[in-house]
Amino acid sequence: MTLQQLRYVVTVAETGNITEAAKLLFITQPSLTAAIHELEKEMQITIFNRTNKGVVVSNEGNLFLSYARQVLEQTSLLEEKYLKRKEHSPRFSVSCQHYAFAVNAFVDVIREFGGDKYDFTLRETQTYEIIEDVSKLKSEIGILYTSSKNEEVIMKIIKQNGLKFEELFVAKPHVFIYSGHPLAHKDIITLEELEPYPYLSFEQGAYNSFYFSEEILSTLDRDKNIKVRDRATLFNLVVGLNGYTVSSGVISRELNGEHIIARPLAVDESMRIGTITQKNMPLSRYATAYMEYLKKYITK
């Protein structure tokens, strides 16, 4: 077993594709495949299951990769300390629902560790994909919420994928609206008052069940519904159409603009927002720092 082989399997796990990984590693696809087979034979395990859609990390491969990442991380630290090598690119990925504090913490990690070269990924994506990304090691940390309506289903899927959920904070539902909205002057807004206005939510693709909705109270019947894929589009529609969305109430002027405001929603419900990570995998220094930055913004 060599460090190079460990780098190979980690890259394949992150890309999910032998061809793409070979390009990133600057080797031929047959050479990469042979190196992985040799490592699997030596370790007497199957790290990847081959499918017609690419490669998928096996259950025993997940555990092996958790150790491989630790070895590579410690190797990088040794090289930095004793060989003064900093030419390698730090790699770190997060998958999350559309939360401003998640973006702010990600920026702080880049400022701390970025240097001249880095390869960091922030995926603001669909709920099911967040769980899938972390389970397949595409991301080290995922961020999502549970409520009384979806908690049983979400926690079951998290457990089935060998992941753990750690609560960050509990929030009461808020509506995000335009500062010039007819309801902007109110201290608390009711569902009845929102009925004339378009309801905006993030589209969940093949998993569009209310269990995977990013917005709490998604089961309510609304006459005007608009689904979007990205944060910028949603907030443009909030401003342009006097629309609204339902979220945690944690807002960032820098990311969301000064014209987007949050108002408490008059409902008896709450959102438990937290992180998901691999159950048996220690966090890298980037992930550890990210967790601390998350807590800093939540405290604010």
Low-confidence stretches: none
CA(first)-CA(last) distance: 46 Å
Average pLDDT over all residues: 89
**Helix vs. strand class:** alpha/beta
Strand content: 15-25%
The fold-level CATH name of the domain at 170-272 is D-Maltodextrin-Binding Protein, domain 2
Q: What is the CATH homologous superfamily assignment of the domain at 170-272?
A: Periplasmic binding protein-like II
Give a written overview of the molecule.
The protein has eleven helices and twelve strands. With 300 residues, the chain is an alpha/beta fold. Among the domains are: 1-82, Arc Repressor Mutant, subunit A (Orthogonal Bundle), CATH 1.10.10; 170-272, 3-Layer(aba) Sandwich (D-Maltodextrin-Binding Protein, domain 2), CATH 3.40.190. The strands form four sheets. It has a five-stranded mixed beta sheet, with helices on both faces. It has a three-stranded antiparallel beta sheet with strand order 10-7-11. A hairpin with a 2-residue loop joins strand 1 (48-51) and strand 2 (54-57). The model has no long low-confidence stretch (mean pLDDT 89).
SSE blueprint and pairings:
Blueprint (H helix, E strand, L loop, with lengths): L2 H13 L2 H8 L3 H15 L4 E4 L2 E4 L1 H24 L8 E6 L3 H14 L5 E6 L2 H9 L5 E6 L4 H10 L2 E9 L2 E5 L12 H4 L4 E4 L22 E4 L2 H11 L3 E3 L5 H4 L3 E5 L6 E8 L6 H15 L1
Parallel strand pairs: 3-4, 3-5, 8-9
Antiparallel strand pairs: 1-2, 5-12, 6-12, 7-10, 7-11
Helix pairs in contact: 1-2, 1-4, 5-11
